[in-house]
Amino acid sequence: MSRDVNRELLTLAGFEGEELENFLPDWLSTVEKVGLTEDDIIYALDEYIPNNWNIQYIGVRKMIGAYFRELVEVAKTQQYKAKGKKIIYGILPAVATCYMAMKHAAGDNAYVSFPDLMLVTILNGFFDKADPFFYHSEDKGFTYGCRHCPLNKMRFGAYSKELLATPDVIWSWGFNCDEGPKTDEMIQCLLDEKWHYVISRLPHDTHLGDVDDEIEERVKYVAEQLRLGMEEIAKITGIKVTDEDMKHAINTTNRLGFKIGQLVALVCNADPVPLGGNALTQFQQPLTVPFNSGTDYIEEAIDIMITEVRQAIKEGKGVLPKGAPKLGSYFVPFCIPWIDRLFRENGVATTFSQTLTLSKK
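Structure (tokenized):
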């Protein structure tokens, strides 16, 4: 009897009942668009996901399901564009709050997310299948190998493969790396002159020991850059962010940040460590990446994960035995999840500090 592997995969990712049945048609369409074969699904279902992710936890499964929803959203950008919806992209590194405010202002009339990051996160993180987009990008002009950020190669490759719609605007950040804006210029020059981008940059010239958020001039400068960026996007899209939209985004970010902080503290202070570092990193992405499907699904996963981690700590369960060494990191490469697994196989647990530390200042 042949397997219904896509239904099995969605069940693994926390879908059930009517929710699964309603989601399945969009998922099947998405799988075809991104180039996942039945063999790819079987590999993910039977090997890649079980071997690299802590799927004994419902919270992890629900987290995977939240990202699957975002993959469907990415695959619908062409459809959304054809219906007249505004398409707003962004890139890392960025703060999600402004994008969340724009999404709140526009509602269902706009797609707002970072499609390159979602594609790398999902295709490589759960299927080990981002390479075809990278190779296609190289065929179209990117130099080969690891010389460039895979996010930029993915954005270029996914657009040139006609998976992504042309955005009304992409807010391109040059905070830590100038290659993001340069890639958008490259796309505009080589692929589509209608690829409009707004660039925001910040200087990194503080002295050792300076605390940025205690220097009023710098705080005002950052706020002004954010305001100007949103004003430029409003001119292009007609989506105007009100104070209420921004308050809603800030409140959502603060709520998520508090819960994520709880999860991080529980995992990092526990012995044995109850959760892998790649999963711990994945749960934190809503602070830096807007989810076009909203934050309800990922927040539900976080809530469940906190409860499950508390129970695992109570029972003394962990991904490694008690007393195993921990490796703290600012960035566990979640999109290459077997790195975390290799550390665990060698008796070392990876943990991850918060992407953004919330402050009452």
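The mean pLDDT is 91. The longest strand covers residues 86-90.
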